[in-house]
Each structure stands twice: as C-alpha cells, then as structure tokens.
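Structure first, sequence second, as always.
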C-alpha cells in the first residue's frame, strides 16, 4: 500500500524477548516434531543482534543449540543425526533478526526488498513487515505475526524445500524481557 512507503521496515522486535514453541519437519514418509525455546536480543550497547534457539525432544533431550547473527549461523551443539542440518535450522531464525539499518533497499511491485550480500528480505503490507527471505537455501515465509506488548513478532516461519519437504517454527508463548543475556535460553 502507498501508506506503507513512508514506514520503516520491521523485522524482529526492538525489545529483547524469549519464547517457546514447536518445530516440525514434514517430508514424504517422515516427520519430526519437537519443542524449542528461543531468545532474541535486538543488540545495542556493543552487542550485535542475535537469535538463539535450543531444540528439545519431548523427553527434554537437547537436540540442537543454534544461533544466528547478521554474520551467520553458529551451531553450539547438536546430536549427530542433526549436526549436518543444524545450520539450516539456524537459518530459520532470520525473520527474528531486526531489519539491517544500512542495507540497500528498493521498491518493486508494492514490496520493499532489502539486499545484503546473497540475502534478500521482502517486506510488505501495512504495517511494513518482513514477509519472505530468499538466500542460498530454502525460501522462508513468515506466515503469521503475534502482537506482544507493542512488538509484532513473527509467530510462524515456514521453509519450503524440494519434494514437498517443509520445516516450520511456530511460537506458542512469547515474553518481552527488559534486557537480553548472553546465556542460552
């Protein structure tokens, strides 16, 4: 919409937050469903924005501990079966990072495109929110947002892969926190 062209693009929250939810992977003949906890730090005071996620089996066993910053993904820990794909899991966290203030942006077909290296983030709607992320790998779509306080946080993030494979993060609970810490969620 024309009214959105004057707005600053929004992705991630301007406040630190943490939450929990469900992670699912569905592929022909296979499915995985697990709980996750997440912490988002918007940065500031010398800190870079960071999102960190811990994936847990329903029995409480740690499956993966990953984080994402503008510099890339970090796999802190992962079980052997997930180690090879833990970077892809970290990439799902991209919509929870804030919009890059110095990224190149341009309007195309009513959408604002933010470019940083190979990554393209598509913003649209009113308010102007992150809707899609394209980069090396599967495209990410933000399927839904949740209002928490005054912050709009991506509630459902979907990665569509080849052969109808789908990965999905769905937030169930979100809490804004006054400050972020450097410890795992």
């Amino acid at each position: 919409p024309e009214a959105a062209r004057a707005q600053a693009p929004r992705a991630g929250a301007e406040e630190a937050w943490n939450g929990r939810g469900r992670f699912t992977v569905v592929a022909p003949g296979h499915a995985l469903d697990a709980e996750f906890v997440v912490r988002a730090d918007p940065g500031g005071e010398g800190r870079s924005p960071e999102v960190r996620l811990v994936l847990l089996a329903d029995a409480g066993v740690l499956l993966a501990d990953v984080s994402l910053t503008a510099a890339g993904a970090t796999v802190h820990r992962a079980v052997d079966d997930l180690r090879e794909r833990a970077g892809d899991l970290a990439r799902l966290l991209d919509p929870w990072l804030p919009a890059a203030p110095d990224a190149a942006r341009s309007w195309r077909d009513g959408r604002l495109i933010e470019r940083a290296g190979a990554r393209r983030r598509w913003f649209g709607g009113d308010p102007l929110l992150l809707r899609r992320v394209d980069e090396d790998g599967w495209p990410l779509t933000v399927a839904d947002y949740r209002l928490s306080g005054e912050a709009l946080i991506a509630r459902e993030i979907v990665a569509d892969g080849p052969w109808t494979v789908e990965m999905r993060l769905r937030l169930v609970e979100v809490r804004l926190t006054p400050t972020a810490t450097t410890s795992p969620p």
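Margin note: The helical segments are 80-83, 86-91.
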